[in-house]
Amino acid sequence: MKKELGSCTLCPRECGADRINRVGYCGVPADAVVGRASLHMWEEPCISGEEGSGTVFFSGCPLKCVYCQNHHISDGKSGIRITDSRLSEIFIELQKKGANNINLVTPTHYTLSVINAVLKARENGLVIPVIYNCSGYEKTQTLDMLRGIVDIYLTDFKYIRRETAMRYSCAPDYPEAVKRALDCMFDQTGSPEFDEKGIMKKGIIVRHLILPEHSEESKEIIEYLYERYGDNIFMSIMNQYTPVRSYEEFPELNRKVTNEEYESVIDFAVEKGVQNAFVQDGETASESFIPCFDGEGVQGSTEAL
């Protein structure tokens, strides 16, 4: 048993919950809970490629944004509880299916399980890169434990204004936390590297999901990232925000991002000189892009919640 989780402080919430015996702010216990493990084709081209990204969707979340697109599992109320050994087996199974990488989605609260599983999987032949796909709301002390474990950071940069972070995620410290986290991530990975197929082997991709009526804040984020890291990181500027329910307290969230809002942000990035960026074309704001969290690829030595 992971004694450190008897008073959990893995994320900036530092809730101190005894996750061995109950759930933390993240909504889940100490053992990993997974909603799906499969090849995923809808990540950035250098992540999915033609073969797919070996994506493991973890249940629970330390941030809990009000507009969460993966709320079916982020609330921690669904998924299959597995051992670290089973998690390592899943990594090997995804590699055998041809995955370009192991893509750990919302892994922060399972960092200790991730470390154990990756080390065991590498002993058993895991050779593809490991991606830490997170919200950006990270502690540098936790990220330090991942040095040599994680090859690629696929991280969000959601907000740069404290009031926005408070309104949508109850985390006014998010801007400071994500800036510190990015510096730590960059220190670990450095500039991006790719294989002969154009698949990323090492580096950072920073995702930013534009929210309705927040295009000016999006521009501030792009400006910060480019001034600090230049083209040593990739940005992924996303227009796929989709209202997944009615938001009475947040009426601005009850619509998709307009073409004008998205184009203004892209134009700003071009004007700033950003070269390494992914943009989205066409109709991406759709619930059809949200996976079905049906337990695919998870069953083994399991315990259903």
Q: What share of residues is helical?
A: 25-40%
Rg = 18 Å
The H/E string reads EHEHEHEHEHEHHEEHEHEE
How would you sum up the major sheet? 11 strands, mixed
Q: Which residue ranges are poorly predicted, with pLDDT under 50 across at least 5 consecutive positions? A: 301-305
- Shape assignment: globular
End-to-end span in angstroms? Answer: 19 Å
Q: Whole-number average pLDDT?
A: 93
- Tally of helical runs: 9
Notes on the protein architecture:
With 305 residues, the chain is α/β, with parallel strands linked by helices. It has helices at 45-48, 71-74, 84-96, 111-123, 140-144, 162-169, 174-189, 215-229, 259-272; strands at 33-40, 53-58, 80-82, 102-105, 130-134, 152-156, 193-194, 200-209, 234-238, 277-279, 302-304. Strands 1, 2, 3, 4, 5, 6, 7, 8, 9, 10 and 11 form an eleven-stranded mixed β-sheet that branches. α3 crosses α4 (111-123) and α8 packs parallel to α9. Mean pLDDT is 93; it is low at 301-305.
